[in-house]
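forwarding from the other thread:

> can someone predict this with nicotinamide-adenine-dinucleotide?

sure thing
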Amino acid sequence: MAPVYSLFLMFLISLFNPIGLLSCLTSRPFFSTIPASNGDENVNIGARHQKELFMNRIRVGMIGAGMIADSHCAGINQHPHAKVVAIADLSAERRKAVKDKYALEKDFEKWSDLVADPDIDAVSIALPNALHAPVAEAALKSGKHVMLDKPFALNRAEAARVLKAAEKAGKVFMLGMNQRFERESQTIRALVKRGDLGEIYHAKAYWVRRSGSPKFGTWFCRKDLAGGGCMMDIGVHVLDLCLHLMGNFKPVAVSGATYTKFGNRGIGEGGWGLSDRGKHVFDVDDFATALIKLENGATVQLDASWALHQNDGDQHNVKLFGTAGGASVWPVRLFRFGKKPGEYEIVEPQGVAMQYPHGNRFMNWIDVILRKDKPMCTPDEALTVQKILDAVYESSTSGKEVRIKG
Ligand SMILES: NC(=O)c1ccc[n+]([C@@H]2O[C@H](COP(=O)([O-])OP(=O)(O)OC[C@H]3O[C@@H](n4cnc5c(N)ncnc54)[C@H](O)[C@@H]3O)[C@@H](O)[C@H]2O)c1
């Protein structure tokens, strides 16, 4: 009798919302007719399923219940047409914590079981770096849309395979470069687009910590699991942001050098990550530097460190240098000559319109899935950043400048 009751219930629902019935029958959401949210998230579990039928929400599976998972879940649930419904992690304790906090329906020990679940439309991935590309590729092949946390992959070949899988599946793949969404970044991007800086011919992008290595003994510090150290972890953020602000993703050559000077001696820990400690292996960079040449002759000086002797604990910025003005992101400032000879102005820009006032990368991702927006971070841009990261390490090993082709 149960299937008869279900069909009757679906018929009743269809009287109010025929698209909802279509969605139930096909198990594919019919996004073009999504009604506006009433903003009420305080519904009980029983009512929630019904509400989701009416709301046509995208059902998201979170893969990885570590330190950053909380901000993924909160960010996704902020969208009126998306909801995190499941979590996968090897750790039962961390899985339970996320499941309880977000009242999730399901949890999985194996990410492959979540990816195979037909009841899930999209996945958000926050795992050790070595799992990024394999899990993203498997999820796309299983018909899920994917949000992947940085860095994209261990190398450009892996990244290219993910993009191929996305294209073949016709699903949205987005790399979650959250710093592009910060208010300060959006302000500078708007000013650059308006032409306030003129031709940008040089930039400095740096994130240098004095003593900020992730917990020793975790995957972050192992080349086989992380791919690299501070350059892959935080250098990637400022590199991506810098090229985005310049509006220039055309690198032609990279000279890089990476160093391991503290972590291998058990110095410079800062504590990031929830993963458990294992044997203390530290075979990744805790300082890395690179000079990147772009096709139009512009250059980018990139520095990253987890540990470095310096005055401040943490310095993090992108600075742009143009023919009409310069800019810094933190704090947001414009630098330019004044109207009279000898005058110089340091301007705090006011009232610049934000493209994404919510500042939330997941809102953009869901809107792209719903075909209401374009991705802030395109697949091609994500691949270009990966090519530069590869080149930094290759150049460090060879001692030579690496040309970037294709
Ligand atoms: N965008 C950002 O600002 C930002 C900030 C922090 C971290 N991240 C990225 O997010 C990812 C996760 O970082 P984190 O700080 O949450 O790490 P974490 O160490 O706190 O968590 C990693 C989680 O992955 C789980 N895990 C490991 N192997 C697994 C497997 N085979 N199957 C299922 N689960 C597995 C671990 O149990 C752990 O809970 C990293 O790639 C990191 O670079 C991005």
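Confidence is low (pLDDT under 50) at residues 1-54. thats all i got for now
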